[in-house]
User: Fold these one by one.
Assistant:
Number 1:
Amino acid sequence: MDARLNVLGIPSAHKILKHLIAADKEASALPATTRELVKIRASQINGCGGCLDMHTKDAAQAGESALRLNLVAAWREATVFTEAERAALELTEQGTRLADAAGGVTDEAWARAAEHYDEEQLTALVSQIALINACNRLNVITRQPAGDYQPGQFG
């Protein structure tokens, strides 16, 4: 597959990506493992190979197990995730599939997330969901290829 645009080679796009990466680092109030799980789940839903390539490799390098990485898409049935991670994954799914539900994120999903995360962490979680969805859309629209990412490549 060939990319429609060389996003990293276009100065204005490169600048935008730098801002997205910087904003991503601001979501550090959330546990690193949870941040990667959120990125992986949203990227699965959006069919973003580039982000799946990046975030599964980054998570593995950070010590995430292959078992957990392989079960993210089936988190409801998997016993390997904490209740906090499950709440974050549920919020991720609902926040990613906004157009699929007339009411958006349910009060129940929000309440489950709020049981496990304080306001600072909830802000980071919501921001993480929004950021990865923006990155997914950028990559999917421009058909960015996957497979060549090296862990830590973008800082």
Number 2:
Amino acid sequence: MSISRRSVRILGVASATAALALGFAGNALACNISEFSAEATCDGSDGVITVTDKDASATEATITVFLENNGGDAKQVGTAQTVKGSKAGVTVSFTEAWQPNATYRIHVKASNKVDEDITPNLTTPSKACETESPSPTPSDTSPAPSDSATPPAESDTPTPSAKESSSTAPATTTDNAPSPAAGSSNLAETGANSNTGMIAGIAGALVVVGGGAVYFGMRRRGAANGR
């Protein structure tokens, strides 16, 4: 009887130890909120909130992200996403144009094991994602071709104008050449000495005739008065 009692005690202690070991192992594999973490990062110029699940039991969990304002939910970011974690960690991302020093609440729901928020709440960095750096690059390169295009346009325009001026120059010289010739011929025809003498002779004859007519008229008047 004493031997059997000892054996029972040994078996009891062994079973209790095995139960404790299984309990610790089960707790170690159970999903826990401490296995979830969140971070606000940038994907280029886009803001991203990334949640990492390091649950080795690979329990499916639903992640929901909320923007906080004055201690309350201002909006839900996107839609809830599901994830099955691993010891190495599995991540899910939420696209969000977050502002510096903003606060987000991340809620985790994993069957009946976890139904709580990641603590503390996520606070975004003090510097936003850079969106202004790519914009000045095209604006600096755009005026370069426009400046290079204008000089050839200006160099083309004076070329035909010079040709036109050169073409008009001989035209004026050819027009001026015959004009003095025509002027000289007219002066030769109108300014001849023979025509001037004829006109002067006719005028003198008319003066003589007129004077004679006046003379004879006055004599007739004198004769009539004498009678």
